[in-house]
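ok so I'm stuck.
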Amino acid sequence: MPTPILHQFDLSPFAEKARLALGLKGLAWRAVDIPMIMPKPMLTGLTGGYRKTPVMQLGADIFCDTRRIALALEHLQPDPTLFPAGDIGLGLALSHWSDTAFFEPGAGLSMGTNDELPEPLLADRKAFFEFMDFDRLGEEIPHLLTQLRAQARLVDRQLADGRRFMSGEAPGWVDICAYFPLWMARGFLANATAILAPLTRLPAWEARVAALGHGHRENIDAEAAWAEAHAAEPQVNVHVDADDPLGLTAGQRVRVAADDYGRDPVEGTLLVLDLDEVVVLRETRELGRIAVHFPRMGYRVSPA
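replied:
not stuck anymore, here's the structure
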């Protein structure tokens, strides 16, 4: 079984999702620390342009987006499962909720309430967070606070019957999705404790999720990760859904890009296109043949 490599930085809320998933499964993994801001030449050189954090590597297979990372980890080690109540569809649907409705108010507050953000970081996020109007962040803070509290209230309500985790007695992906915006809020908002104080069921549940830990981490450098990619071959069964409305074919040159923000496109040869994922093959002298995997939901695919 290949050992996962997570290309990440420790302050990334989305990397925290992946780290907790690795912790739930008790996996050993390796971390490549990437810069918080562009340029990220070793990361984008690996993915072909995708810059979001985190990216997971298994040999010559590169997984983008935490939704796709979750499924890759589930396939790599099914037990313990990320979906203990058999709620894989609901769990993946809640990924979108947590990544947008829950994350975005917290991200806006993190940007709008911290007056001492380094200028390079602020400039990078202005270009990256297309959902945010930085010119109006100050006046938006009360609204963003209401939205963060309203989303957190959904989690508090789900725990109202005394259950230990969102789906019942066992932790899973739905807990990780609901937890990471709160991890971000408590880490980056000075008044987070007061804001969330009325939601009394959250702290004990957050402690249980945090106790999943991050598995067994070893730090490596990007050059070692690249060498591992070069030495391996992608593990992909080529197939394209004949009923897919886009009418693309295996072997066609395509472009894949997120449809929310961070829309940097990745070009490659189409290997897989189905209801769950899109995979493209990239070939470079430094890396050899690598397969870059994306979720189908939330990504646009077009002829290159």
